[in-house]
Amino acid sequence: MVKESQKIVAVDQDIPVIDMSLERSRVSMQIVKACETSFWFDSWSSLGCIIEKLGERGYIDLGIPKTATVGEVMAMQRRRHHRTGLLNQIEEEITKQRMCNIAGERDIALWKGEKDSYRNKFVTSETWRQIRNAKPEMEGYKGVWFSHSTPKYSFITWLVSKNRMATGDRMVLWNQHVNTSCSLCDEPMETRDHLFFVCTYSRKVWEDIAKPILQHRFSLDWKDILNYVCERDSDKTRNFIIKHVFQNTIHSVWGERNARRHGEQPSPVGKLVKMIDKNMRNKLSTIRLVNHGVDPDVISRLEQESINFFAKPVLEKKSVGSVVNRPFGYGLKNIGLKGDIGEVEYLLLHTNPLFLSQLSFGNDSTKFGSAVTCYVEAIKQLACEILDLTAEGLRLPPHTFSKLIRAVDSDSVLRLNHYPSSNQFLSGAKVSDMSVSLPRVGFGEHTDPQILTVLRSNRVGGLQVAFPDGRWVSVSPDPSTFCVNVGDLLQVMTNGRFLSVRHRAVTTGHASRLSMAYFAGPSVHAKIGPIPGIIPAAEQPRLYRTFTWADYKKFAYSLSLGDNRLDIFRSCVDEHDELGF
Ligand SMILES: O=C(O)CCC(=O)C(=O)O
Ligand SMILES: [Fe+2]
Q1: Mean pLDDT value of segment 78-94
Q2: Are 544 and 569 contacting, i.e. CB atoms less than 8 angstroms apart?
Q3: Is the peptide bond preceding residue 327 cis, with omega within 30 degrees of 0?
Q4: N or C terminus of the chain with fewer C-beta within 10 Å?
Q5: For residues 433 and 8, which has the higher predicted lDDT (pLDDT)?
Q6: Ligand 1 atom 3: residue of nearest CA
Q7: CB-facing half-sphere around the CA of 425: CA atoms within 13 A
Q8: In this structure, which residue's CA is closest to atom 10 in ligand 1?
Q9: Which amino acids bring their CB within 6 angstroms of ligand 1?
Q10: φ, ψ for residue 245 (rounded to 5)?
Q11: Residue 356 vs residue 246, higher pLDDT
Q12: Mean per-residue pLDDT over the chain, rounded
């Protein structure tokens, strides 16, 4: 039983290791009945753990071996009289248990929960609460620890909020001759509250970054800022952005301060602002949409139709594409025209109503067609809402982006991807031939070309997103939400303020995965380039030249899936084309 409770603590490597011999008496498991219960190490009586009361000497004093169970002691032990009261008390407990006559019964493990209640169900969170030593909540902890925070930023913010950084006022306590002045502005005493965000340098950084977000709540006072950052905002995205920007600024200002102390060249305010802005954009290249308002029926209808479709024989599936030109229609393993291969089959559909009306899905034509149409209509609406919010955030006219999607000749597409389970693997390998737990490439690494992608998958995971530091991070599957990815065109139009996100899908074959990706694109004739309102005149050069979506597509077809398709559109000179926005 003791081993059992130790195992529980060791399950998750992220949970700190806890010495159960110290915690056992307070914690987890109580044994009310006896034959597998350790006499010494389980808490079977009102005295708690006997080993903790007597120590190892107790084996001799009581004449009971270390490995004895309560059941064995009940059966064998004859009552003895001792000189010490505690030993006699234990003898009494043994007698009491014997009178209950439980020796031969099986154990029932009860887990100690809140308010000292016991139940036979194990709940990790309750056990964790029992074994941890809860300290009072730290002031401002909500601004320090939050989900999806960047650990290195949270860590520094934690130290700063506890005022534990080696600022001038603290260093002078250890060494009177230390230079206490602020390395950023030469103020004679560098304190936490001065460095963040009163100093002329960090104040400018904070103003540039945070004023547009915080507006009338903008402040330079450390306490005010921390309080505001900890407030709950009903808008979760805004909440996240504020916290992240706050932490990122602290991290960057501290980095700049250290660099200067160590004799490095000062960075101008603009450089730091750009860096923080870029980090933020990287964080937001993929977002998850919850409470999106799309009718679940519309989603499940298309999901069911897709399942039915992919269950058909390959020849039948291929016939769907017979009336349309490549790349539309059914695809099996081959992605694009350059030999990219994945463990996937898909159906690529143009969302133009005329195109959809030309498709034939055999007997199920009307049902499939109407499921696709309803889904596309709902997701297009959602994509436009997101794009309008994006335009608002960038202080651009409201429909700057969405009007491209709403255009009658918008080139938006829908791809239904099916990653089969191991017994359906497309390569023809038998289950026994391969290790199903080794992830295989389902859809190779790439960025999505269009403006925005709205992606939904079933309960099976597989989507991974590349982080700037090179890590691949798995996106947990949640069929009730959508993942929204920034596409190449949005990167161009925002002159790199948003970055298209590199992602891929892997498949282990444990279960069949279905994803539905709506790619919101403009008309093929649309001119794409950085939107004039977004280029802050002298500070940031125009990163891309103007091109049409047709130009991009033509070029993209000549490349492999993972190639960078934007490099050739990078501008060398500062152009001033008429974009018509
Ligand atoms: O299936 C997925 O999760 C990703 C698919 C994808 O990236 C795509 O279709 O472009
Ligand atoms: Fe994609």
Answers
A1: 87
A2: yes
A3: yes
A4: C
A5: 433
A6: 463
A7: 20
A8: 448
A9: 415, 417, 443, 448, 455, 457, 462-463, 503, 505, 515, 517
A10: -65, -40
A11: 246
A12: 83
Nearest ligand 1 atom to alpha carbon 446? 7
Inter-residue contact 247 to 157 (CB < 8 Å): yes
529 has a pLDDT exceeding 70: yes
Amino acid residing at 287? I
Element counts in the chain: helices (H) and strands (E): 21, 16
Q: What are the pLDDT digits (tens) for 545-580? A: 999 999 999 998 889 999 999 999 998 644 444 333
DSSP string of 117-128? Answer: -EESS--HHHHH
Residue 219 DSSP SS3: coil
The closest alpha carbon to 18, from 106, 112, 131, belongs to 131
Helix (H) or strand (E) holding 308: helix 296-310
Question: What is the edge-to-edge ordering of all strands in the sheet holding 440-446?
Answer: 440-446, 503-507, 463-466, 472-474
- Give per-residue burial for 553-562: e unless 16+ CB within 10 Å, then b: bebbeebebe
Sheet holding 109-112, edge to edge: 29-31, 109-112, 118-119
Per-residue pLDDT reduced to its tens digit, 102-112: 555 566 677 77
Q: Which tens digit of pLDDT belongs to each residue from 261-284? A: 999 999 999 999 988 887 887 777
535 band by pLDDT with thresholds 50, 70 and 90: low
Atom 8 in ligand 1: which residue has the minimum CA distance? 517
d(CA 307, CA 302): 9
Which string of DSSP letters, residue by residue, matches 163-183? T-S--HHHHHHH-TTS--S-T
Residue 29: pLDDT above 50?
no
| Entry pTM | 0.63
Preceding omega of 240 cis (within 30 degrees of 0): no
